């Protein structure tokens, strides 16, 4: 009789541990915050469109899983064309992305902007809501140090 009650206690304890571990795993899965930084360093319109598609696909995927994702696109070098109000070939696509990802961050490299202004002889205005950062490559490094996953389409 002692052996049966001892066995029942051990099985009960194992059941509780299993239940606790399952609950912890479900909580960890639900509370996961994903972070994605996408780099654009080219004037290639196809790359810009792929970048925006990557962002929207990641957002859709994690929305369907009930998880959150924070996304930032960093443009530097020739890639700043994507975020310029006067030259962006993907303005409409950016507006579309902003509708599906309201908190998407768009960052333009300040060094590339200053170099383009010097070369072109006039001020460059970023698209509305674009943040100018001191250096695009440094911004990407800082985001990676904060746990962002880096993708270069």
Topology, please?
Blueprint: H1 2-30, E1 33-40, H2 45-64, E2 68-75, H3 91-100, E3 105-109, H4 110-120, E4 131-133, H5 136-145, E5 149-151
Parallel strand pairs: 1-2, 1-5, 2-3, 3-4
Helix pairs in contact: 2-3
Please tell me about this protein's structure.
The chain is α/β, with parallel strands linked by helices and 153 residues long. Helices cover 52% and strands 18% of the residues. The chain contains five helices and five strands. The chain has helices at residues 2-30, 45-64, 91-100, 110-120, 136-145; strands spanning 33-40, 68-75, 105-109, 131-133, 149-151. The longest helix has 29 residues, at 2-30.
In short, what is this structure?
With 153 residues, the chain is α/β, with parallel strands linked by helices. The chain has helices spanning 2-30, 45-64, 91-100, 110-120, 136-145; strands spanning 33-40, 68-75, 105-109, 131-133, 149-151.
- Separation, N- and C-terminal Cα atoms: 67 Å
- Counted up, domains total 2
Strand order of the largest sheet: 4-3-2-1-5
CATH superfamily (homologous) name of the largest domain: DsrEFH-like
Low-confidence stretches: 10-21, 25-29
Query: Beta-strand percentage?
Result: 15-25%
Order of helices and strands: HEHEHEHEHE
Rg of Cα set: 23 Å
List how many beta strands DSSP finds. 5
**Major beta-sheet overview:** 5 strands, parallel
User: What structural class is derived from the secondary structure elements?
Assistant: alpha/beta
Enter the CATH topology name of the largest domain: Hypothetical Protein Ychn, Chain: A
Helicity, as a percent range: 40-55%
Averaged pLDDT, please? 88
DSSP helix count?
5
Instruction: Output the CATH class name of the largest domain.
Output: Alpha Beta
The CATH architecture name of the largest domain reads: 3-Layer(aba) Sandwich
The 3D shape can be described as elongated
């Amino acid at each position: 009789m002692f052996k049966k009650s001892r066995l029942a206690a051990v099985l009960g304890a194992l059941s509780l541990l299993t239940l606790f571990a399952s609950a912890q795993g479900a909580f960890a899965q639900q509370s996961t915050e994903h972070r994605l930084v996408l780099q654009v360093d080219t004037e290639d319109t196809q790359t810009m469109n792929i970048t925006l598609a990557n962002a929207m696909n990641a957002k859709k995927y994690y929305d369907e899983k009930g998880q959150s994702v924070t996304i930032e696109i960093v443009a530097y070098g020739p890639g700043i064309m994507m975020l310029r109000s006067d030259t962006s070939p993907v303005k409409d696509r950016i507006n579309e992305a902003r509708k599906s990802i309201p908190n998407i961050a768009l960052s333009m490299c300040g060094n590339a902007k200053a170099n383009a202004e010097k070369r072109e002889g006039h001020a460059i205005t970023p698209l509305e809501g674009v943040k100018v950062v001191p250096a695009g490559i440094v911004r990407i490094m800082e985001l990676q140090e904060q746990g962002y996953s880096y993708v270069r389409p």
